[in-house]
Specification:
alpha+beta, single chain, binds zinc ion, rod-shaped
Length: 59
């Protein structure tokens, strides 16, 4: 087994992990109702995705 030769400090470990966080996805405008919605998801306002109605939103 490969073994690390030197101990990495917690500061070094944390600096390495500073790039690992998830960033919030940018909202896009729905092509049907122009409301901001998440990309690659059925619109929560009108229920449309890829130009057709997938779900009917509740009142
Ligand atoms: Zn919509």
């Amino acid at each position: 087994m490969a073994m690390p030769k030197k101990h990495h400090s917690s500061a070094r470990r944390d600096r390495r992990r500073s790039h690992l966080g998830l960033k919030p996805s940018k909202p896009v405008l729905c092509a049907h109702c122009k409301q901001p919605t998440r990309p690659h998801r059925v619109c929560g306002n009108c229920g449309y995705y890829a130009g057709m109605e997938v779900t009917t939103p509740e009142e």
